Amino acid sequence: MMQSEDESELKSLHQEKEIEAIPPKTACQCQVEELAKTLQVDLERGLSEFSVLHRRVKHGWNELVADNTEPVWKKYLDQFKNPLILLLLASAVVSLITKEYEDAVSITMAVIIVVTVAFVQEYRSEKSLEELNKLVPPECSW
């Protein structure tokens, strides 16, 4: 009886070594049954404890990884990509060229204020969304 269990574990270990991870984009395009067959998962019973432990050692925990966030300064500079902001900055440059310094300063100050307010609002929105995401754990259902 003991030898049979050992043989079964060795067979399971050999099968586990053959299973490779599937990139998320590829997995999303597969049918559930096809994916279960490829990953050697029983849809009714799931994975054996041995399989879970082996796969966890080999591939790590089954966790969603958040995208790397951009640096704050880059998000601020991205606010300047708005076509209206670019148009206002161009008009400030034209004002400088025509020696209308008061207009150039006024336009530039207005742009800085608008961009800063937009950045702060976007930053706060992102932080609020992050907090909401912490309350709802990511799940996969099919």
UniProtKB/TrEMBL annotation:
Q: Does the keyword DNA-binding apply?
A: no
List, alphabetically, the Pfam families matched: Cation_ATPase_N
Q: Where is the Cation-transporting P-type ATPase N-terminal domain?
A: 26-100
Keyword entries, A-Z: Magnesium
Which Gene3D superfamilies does the UniProt entry name for this protein? Calcium-transporting ATPase, cytoplasmic transduction domain A, Calcium-transporting ATPase, transmembrane domain
Top-level taxonomic group:
Eukaryota
Keyword Magnesium belongs to the record: yes
PANTHER family in the record? CALCIUM-TRANSPORTING ATPASE (PTHR42861)
Protein name per the record: Calcium-transporting ATPase type 2C member 2-like
